[in-house]
Amino acid sequence: MISERFEKGSKKLAEVDGQVGEEVVAPLGDLGKYIVEFAFGDIYSRDGLSLRDREIATIAMLASRSGVEPQLKVHIKAGMNVGLTTEEIEEIIIQTVPYSGFPTAINALNALKEIVVE
């Protein structure tokens, strides 16, 4: 049985990521279900921030961490889907340098460049 949280989360996921979101979470089984319900049904569906603002925060957090480039790429695409430009995403990445260092920013910028080339 599909829960109300899952339905709400699925709609929000599609709004943020389009078809790509479903393709990312579907193979994850129960973990994917939890992502849809919690991250998108509960968190992304809250009032207070636009989807654009939420993706700015998400990209900044992921850009400041090592080893999460696959998830960063998903959210770079999502950011573009909700209205961020390549230039804005690059600025978000540059903003992480004083707090997270050059290595993570370099990795994030490389992820952005890979997305732009696609």
UniProtKB/TrEMBL annotation:
<protein>
    <submittedName>
        <fullName>4-carboxymuconolactone decarboxylase</fullName>
    </submittedName>
</protein>
